[in-house]
Amino acid sequence: MNADQAERPLLPLRPELRGEVPYGAPQLDVPVLLNVNENPYPPSAAITEDIGRSVAQAASSMNRYPDREFLELRGALASYLARESKVSLASEQIWAANGSNEVMLHIMQAFGGPGRTAMSFTPTYSMYAEYARDTHTTWVVGERNDDFSIDVTRAVADIERVQPAIILLTSPNNPTGTALASDVLTAILEAAGRVRVDGSPAVVVVDEAYAEFRRESVPSALELLSEYPALAVTRTMSKAFAAAGLRLGYLAASRDFVDALRIVRLPYHLSAITQAAALAALRHSDELLGQVAQLRAERDRTVQWLRQRKVDGVALRVADSDANFVYFGQFADRHAVWQGLLDRGVLIREVGPDGWLRVSVGTRDEMDAFFSALVEVAGV
Ligand SMILES: Cc1ncc(COP(=O)(O)O)c(C=O)c1O
Predict the structure, then answer these.
(1) For the segment 212-257, what is each residue's pLDDT rounded down to a tens digit?
(2) DSSP per position, 306-375
(3) For residue 375, how many other CB atoms are within 10 A of its CB?
(4) Is residue 352 lining ligand 1, measured as CB closer than 6 Å?
(5) Which of 95, 122, 238, 248 for a ligand 1 pocket mutation test, highest count of atoms within 8 Å of Cβ?
């Protein structure tokens, strides 16, 4: 690009997008992939055959547009949540899209926009800021405590000051793995109820992308849905469900909340192929989720292993995790550690506050490979 083009760009890209690059973790072909919190166990042949049959049947009528309301899939997701969290919901209380990323975009489109603010508590999932940018929503973050929990008094004061239309809470949080304490969630819900945006309270979205990995004593925000009509809980089939390639995320909320999202979705946003594949996968939910207990145990082993290590004589800090990843630090040069691991075929993630790294939980062999590589690279 010459100087003239820099001053007068060839395309009328929105000013706030100039110089931006597409978001995404590196997609590299290495033996040990521990960077995007996937489930390392692929589906069995029986499951892929069933999905294949269902997709073939859907393809036989693909000259027609798909079911725009996809109530069969929404009903199947409600049944799954009833089994998983013991919360009973109507199909009309469920919404779905191509990944929970798209669900979150629908939320921003419906409740954010010019003159409105969305807020969260940092460090947290870095995509939220992009959904806000893309929908002309102002993005504001409050700080988390040193252990990545949320301080209830400070959070409530932040909400009262900012008067956000949307409050995004992530539980378990990415990249830290921290679950949201119930008393903090209820205090935030009450504070959200006192906000006034064009005469209405704020919506509160609890992103539970990793909920299936939470420890036994940690409740799901789904249990509060009947009390708070402005609460929504998002989930995904990308993580515990071992179906990141499917692109199916969903949300549970009041009917009014879901109806608001139906206004902004693109027509027929969920293809017949996706609906058929997701329905087939849900028929096999027990098997697809069958490795969750093992992944939890492997996560706890990873936390324990890392907590026994030192770097330059100082014990590593390792955040408590209710997810399928572990956040640890602090390294004087985290990029060098990340690169050293990559050079040994182990890809993890450089994300969040300086000095910290995140490793997804893989199979036992993959975690052993990570441990050995970390010993070599960082001398832990
Ligand atoms: C906290 C959180 N929410 C949402 C997502 C998006 O998941 P998906 O769009 O695959 O459903 C991710 C993905 O990493 C995540 O970490």
Answers:
(1) 999 988 999 999 999 999 999 999 999 999 999 999 999 999 999 9
(2) HHT-EETTEEPEE---SSSEEEEE--TTHHHHHHHHHHTTEE-B--SSTT-EEEE---HHHHHHHHHHHH
(3) 11
(4) no
(5) 238
Whether 209 lines ligand 1, by a CB cut-off of 6 Å, is yes
Looking at residue 298, the DSSP 8-state letter turns out to be: H
Phi, psi of 94 (to 5 degrees): -110, 145
- 323 close to 359: Cβ distance less than 8 angstroms: no
How far does residue 235's CA lie from ligand 1's centre (Å)?
8
Ligand 1 atom index nearest CA of 104: 4
In order of their start, the domains of the chain are 3-42+290-378 (3.90.1150.10), 46-288 (3.40.640.10)
37 lines ligand 1 (CB under 6 A): yes
pLDDT digits (tens, 9 = 90+) for 312-352: 899 999 999 999 999 999 999 999 999 999 999 999 999 99
pTM: 0.96
**β-pairing verdict for 138-143 and 117-122:** parallel
Q: Is 174 in the pocket of ligand 1 (CB under 6 A)?
A: yes
